[in-house]
Hints:
Elements: H1 20-42, H2 45-64, H3 75-85, H4 93-107, H5 121-132, H6 134-137, H7 172-178, H8 187-192, H9 204-217, H10 223-241, H11 249-254, H12 258-265, H13 276-296, H14 303-320
Amino acid sequence: MTDSIVRVTASPHVRSPESTTRIMWSVVFSLVPVIGASIYFFGPGAIFILLASSAGCLLAERLFGSRPGSLADGSAMITGLLLGLTLPPGFPLWMAFLGGAFGMTFGKIVFGGLGQNIFNPALVGRAFLQAAFPVAITTWPARTEQWSALQGDIFALPFFSPVVDTITGATPLGNLKFGDNPAITPLLDLLVGNTGGSLGETSALLILLGGLYLALRGHLNWHIPVSIFVSVFAFSGLFYALGISQFPPLFMLFSGGLMLGAVYMATDMVTSPVSNKGCWIFGVGIGLLVVLIRIWGGLPEGVMYAILLMNALVPFINRVSQPRLFGTSARKKKTGAES
């Protein structure tokens, strides 16, 4: 007889083939069609902006990251790409680089690195750029007939005023809210991406397909984007029916950065609730805030602020949405006899 060997190891004993690195790069892969659409619609300037924002994130991770080899997990790349997709096509490259470095440093690294951050790092970077460079981030260059022409003044020197005269255009949200001749952009243009706006406002259809891919892979909790879409459609439809809002519900749903934010930013595993009930609360809160900011806010868009505000509430949402332990009553019972 042969003696059997018993090995004692720490849990978990059953491991999933999925890993953090694999999930992160799967998200990057799902963004490829969206990035391709942004390059198709906005020209080569989109490539430079995405490279600049990604370079800022990667450099900050390399210099200040607490874990060795943290660049390989793909989290910095995702942050850089998502930040770049929230920027206008003529945004100066040095600002995009600075936003990426700030978002990674103060949105993730200062909290302890991957898995410890409270807020979405890409949105932290964009919030910084919104506060530091409000004119540049709200300047939307009009599309040119020549694809290879660079829009705006992306090669502006740091801290110098732009030197190129730019013909600006309005985004669908801005035109309807502040335009001299407000008009509702056709739904087909919003779905395909044939509109002005940020690089990530390219094609709602491609973003939805990317989200479906991630949901089928189990890399995305579908409760979050669905709850956002349902709440935005319901609240905007209610206000539109009451004559309070000029935004039709379908236009509200497919315009601006809502699709990109709902599918790729609100679903961040670290900064979203852990239970399905909490995800519904989280998503409905984001949807309501988006509608309120778009209708009554001073800016036409409110996705960034809505997600960041709800990120701050995630610990409280997790507390009130904890599932009941199996075998226990829904009501709290006294644990001790009264003396």
